[in-house]
Amino acid sequence: MFGKKGQAFDAFKLLIAAVVAGAILVILLGMLGGFITPSGDPISVMSQSISKVKGAPGSGSVSAQMVQFKEGDVVSSEAVETKSGVNTGTVKFCGTVDSECTSACPPGYGFDEHDTFFSVDSGGEINAIKDVSGKIRVYNCGSDGKYWIGFKPVS
Questions:
Q1: Using one digit for the tens of pLDDT, what is the confidence trace for 45-97?
Q2: 75 with 123, same domain?
Q3: Which of 6, 10, 80, 144 has the most neighbouring CB atoms within 10 Å?
Q4: Residue 68 belongs to what domain range?
């Protein structure tokens, strides 16, 4: 009984190998994360962000997930309202109309500021004229009952 090699030692070596392999995988995925960034559908990410600030007037949320606008994509406020389940006329895009809420659209988040990527109209439509990735910001103004959506490209 005392002369036998224990099998627990082999299991311990296997456990150490698994931990080392996991650490290598985490490092590799971290390095590749700079090159490969998963992106979401703009309308889905906008509606998810609205859900985060829905019951909290005066709060904002920047999406953790990158969004990808492709050339020719059109996003309307009606589509976002329908997907997020908010009232008609409550979703506004920064840069398409003036906001009475000063915190709604900070510099860098207006669609009109990025006219190399978007054309905007006063009817609440965003048209992508070039491929671009970035972050979505949603702000629940509270004072005007509207959700203001902005976009900031990430290069």
A1: 999 888 888 888 888 888 888 898 999 999 998 999 999 888 888 888 888 77
A2: yes
A3: 80
A4: 39-153
Taking only the tens place, the pLDDT of each residue in 115-129 is 789 888 766 788 999
Nearest Cα residue to 120 out of 88, 84, 74, 89: 74
DSSP 103-150: TSS-TT--GGGGTTTEEEETTTEEEESS-EEEEEEEEE-SSSS-EEEE
Rounded Cα–Cα distance for residues 143 and 93 (Å): 16
Q: Within this chain, do residues 25 and 48 fall inside the same structural domain, yes or no?
A: no
* pLDDT number for residue 34: 53
Number of domains composing the chain: 2
Q: Percentage of the chain with pLDDT > 70?
A: 85
74 shares its domain with 144: yes
Q: What is the pTM of this model?
A: 0.71
Q: 28 and 63, same structural domain?
A: no
